[in-house]
Amino acid sequence: MKTILVIEDEPAVRSNLLKLLKAEGFDAIGAENGLVGVQLAREHEPDLIICDIMMPDFDGYSVLTQLRQDQITAIIPFIFLTAKTEREDLRQGMQLGADDYLTKPFTRAELLGAIATRLKKQEAVTLLQGKIQELQQLNIQKDDLLARASHDLRTPLANMKLIIQMLEIISNEEQQQQYRALLEAECIREIELVNNILDLHRLGSEKKIFSPETLILKYWLPTLIEPFKPGIAQRQQILNIDCSPNLPPLISDRICLEQILIELIGNACKYTPSFGEISISVYVDYSININLNSNSRVNFKITNQAEILNTELPRIFEKFYRIPNGDIWKEGGSGLGLYLVQNLVEKIGGTIQAQSTQGWTTFTVQLPIQTSA
């Protein structure tokens, strides 16, 4: 319900206006003079103000001047009621910021027409202001991203330059192999950072198209997990895979799901110590639907032997957030991974939960069997 404030010193006129407005479904408030009107405008922040010009002590011009100087009331649509028709008087009101005039006497249709026009324009202004604020916020985020990204991208490049210099002066084959491994790791790190930044850009684009595919999980999942096995073996970590043999076909965006699982499995590897366990399980959740149907959901559960502190857990999905001292293998990251994961999960109609207790951390992604675009 729209609220309209009527500032009118003549009781009969004020009463008639309030009755008419209430009969039309507005929440109407009356003020008997300009000072009371200013006070009520600040208290109620109405959607529109109708104000008489000719009032004793504090006239309509003074009311408008006061309200336009106050940030709270500055943009409230303002309609003058006046018996004056001189151009100079009309010009004065317009210069002060009045939106419209109604000359007494006026008809019901003229009043309601003026109100409808002003409210419609104000809705457009409010929508535009919201868009402007959104763009301003995006600009701030862009600047923040560029500042952080430039720092993060320089670090691997600087390390690669140093490693290349060391390779030029080292003749020992064993040491050269160690430095080549370091160089490869820094290259991978740089590629991951660039990919995360590109993914963040794509995520903010409304042009990204949902591309559903039918995934046969028992064949698709092993190919996704296989590239992680050499690194897991090198770190002497223990990998457990538990996938139900009767997993149904999943209709979802393959690229999005790949990004989600690769990030979560990669994080599990990154934060698990030697001889620690990493478990990947996939199963259908029948807790809601006993029979398999389009409303059933597939759970992807990634668990690793490491704990996130209770103080850190609520922040892990924040953009650029990194868990202090959590990267035991010193692989680095952009702080964008889990932020992207959460957004991608939502994009394909799923949910994600994180739990961490008693030395174990579990991420559970739940997706519908068939995802709608």
Outline the structure in words:
The chain has 373 residues and is α/β, with parallel strands linked by helices. The protein has two domains: 3-106, Rossmann fold, CATH 3.40.50; 209-373, Heat Shock Protein 90. 48% of the residues lie in helices and 19% in strands. The chain has helices at 11-23, 34-44, 60-68, 87-96, 108-169, 173-203, 217-225, 229-234, 254-271, 337-347, and strands spanning 3-7, 27-31, 48-52, 78-82, 100-103, 212-215, 238-243, 250-253, 277-285, 297-304, 351-357, 360-368. The strands form three sheets. It has a five-stranded parallel beta sheet with strand order 2-1-3-4-5, sandwiched between helices. The radius of gyration is 32 Å and the shape is elongated. The mean pLDDT is 84.
Concise structural overview:
This protein has 373 residues and is of the alpha/beta class. The protein has helices at residues 11-23, 34-44, 60-68, 87-96, 108-169, 173-203, 217-225, 229-234, 254-271, 337-347; strands at residues 3-7, 27-31, 48-52, 78-82, 100-103, 212-215, 238-243, 250-253, 277-285, 297-304, 351-357, 360-368. It has two domains: 3-106, Rossmann fold (3-Layer(aba) Sandwich), CATH 3.40.50; 209-373, Heat Shock Protein 90 (2-Layer Sandwich).
